[in-house]
Design brief:
alpha+beta, 31% helix, 7-stranded mixed sheet, 437 residues, 6-stranded antiparallel sheet
């Protein structure tokens, strides 16, 4: 384990959990890399700056029922109250176009008692009407955030409907353009929005996604999001993975607090090294699963399979090495007990990733009318949730299937499932529980 304290920010550490022993001819090395930032999360001083843009869906559907728009205004006002003094912020009204609500003029306000009061006054002018083009909201947020001389750039996006006024390709182009420029938490309110659109926004922009089925819960959720955002102190942190000649990275994925595939997001960082984005950090810990294919070697030989470190992008586009580092090793042995023992951390998170996939596939099959396939996949999900101790996911699954026998994964699909329950399960399917260390 190595650790490093960024001046004025949290201290980073890296721990590697693996079974380093391979049988003769073995070539696949798996490791769980735990990255922890401690000492952050406190109100930032002069050295840390942040900007936040709140994107509020104001399409016509937000008027059904009328309380939904009122709840959205109240939630946004509560989030504004949570802003620290000195944080740059703005509000965007999102329909089939994007419009600046506050402060206007293509700029952001700086939070203090006066600007917070002005922003909350401006919220009263929000009215529902028009369509939905999420990409236009994100592009406006990007322009506003880019104009602020800050280190942390963050968006919060609320929608209640499907992205009907732009194509999927247009939204993807926007997400590709915004990736790495700011992070974004996305929320779907009610049950008339598309789960894969909302989770896709959060995934591409390294934020969180969730459902707020009851609009009355928006204030609580927005406040929690903003509190988390205010705790971020280091932006644009990446896992830098170096591997020796002859090795190949099979995959890199975040596995806690949620499953997030990072393999295809690699950017080259010099000879045999690549960076995998993780977004901004406060006082928190996350786990990553690294799988490396190594060249075959003889019994008794050992090698460094990978070296994992942390780097942070700087405003001048340089990269700061955060110093924290972990080593992944491979040792070939004829001790069958050693080489066949599966590391408990690797086993746990392999199961968690399979759980998320089984839920997604099961719900997709159910929507497609393949009830036998859905039953098999969701039964496997129930089994995995029980084995891993993921009680929250088990409870969500129980609202979609009748559990006959959890240990064997024997279930029956419920004849009637509330739409909110199915969407909650789909939205939260990637959330994981951490292994007890």
């Amino acid at each position: 384990m190595a650790n490093f304290a960024k001046p004025g920010g949290p201290r980073f550490s890296v721990d590697v959990y693996q079974n380093e022993y391979l049988p003769e001819g073995g070539r696949e090395v798996n490791a769980i890399v735990t990255v922890t930032a401690k000492g952050g999360g406190a109100p930032a001083g002069p050295g840390t700056s942040a900007a936040v843009v709140l994107m509020v869906d104001c399409s016509g559907s937000m008027d059904y029922p009328p309380t939904k728009m009122r709840n959205a205004r109240d939630a946004t006002a509560a989030a504004i109250d949570t802003l620290r003094d000195g944080v740059h912020f703005g509000i965007v009204d999102g329909t089939h176009v994007a419009r600046e609500v506050y402060p206007g003029g293509g700029r952001l306000a700086v939070a203090d008692a006066t600007t917070r009061a002005q922003a909350k006054q401006a919220l009263r002018r929000l009215r529902a009407g028009g369509g939905t083009a999420i990409g236009t909201w994100l592009r406006l947020a990007d322009r506003l955030l880019a104009g602020a001389d800050v280190s942390i750039r963050h968006g919060i996006l609320l929608t209640d409907g499907r992205n009907e006024h732009e194509s999927a390709a247009e939204l993807k182009d926007t997400l590709d353009a915004c990736a790495g420029r700011f992070t974004c938490d996305a929320r779907g309110v009610g049950t008339d929005w598309e789960v894969k659109e909302v989770t896709g926004v959060a995934s591409a922009l390294l934020g969180t996604a969730d459902i707020v089925a009851d609009p009355a819960r928006l204030t609580e959720d927005f406040t929690r999001i903003m509190e988390s955002t205010m705790g971020k102190e280091v932006a644009d942190v990446a896992l830098r993975v170096w591997t020796p000649v002859g090795t190949r990275i099979k995959f890199v994925k975040q596995v806690a607090p949620a499953v997030e595939e990072l393999t295809d997001r690699r950017t080259e960082a010099g000879p045999r090294a690549g960076d995998y984005p993780t977004g901004s950090w406060g006082d928190e810990s996350r786990d990553y699963h690294l799988c490396v294919e190594v060249p075959a070697a003889g019994l008794g030989q050992e090698m460094l399979a990978a070296r994992v470190s942390l780097v942070a992008a700087q405003p001048d586009r340089s990269v700061q090495n955060l110093g924290a580092q972990g080593l992944v090793r491979a040792v070939w042995t004829d001790d069958m007990a050693a080489s066949t023992s599966l590391n408990s951390q690797v086993a746990h998170y392999t199961g968690q990733a399979e759980l998320a996939q089984a839920i997604q596939e099961g719900l997709d099959l159910r929507k497609a009318g393949d009830m036998d396939g859905a039953t098999a996949k969701l039964g496997r999900a129930v089994q995995l949730a029980g084995v891993s101790g993921n009680a929250d996911t088990a409870k969500l699954l129980a609202k979609v299937v009748d559990v006959v026998d959890a240990p064997t994964g024997t279930v029956r699909l419920k004849a009637k499932v509330a739409e909110a329950d199915e969407m909650t399960l789909e939205t939260r399917s990637t959330k994981t529980v951490r292994v007890k260390k």
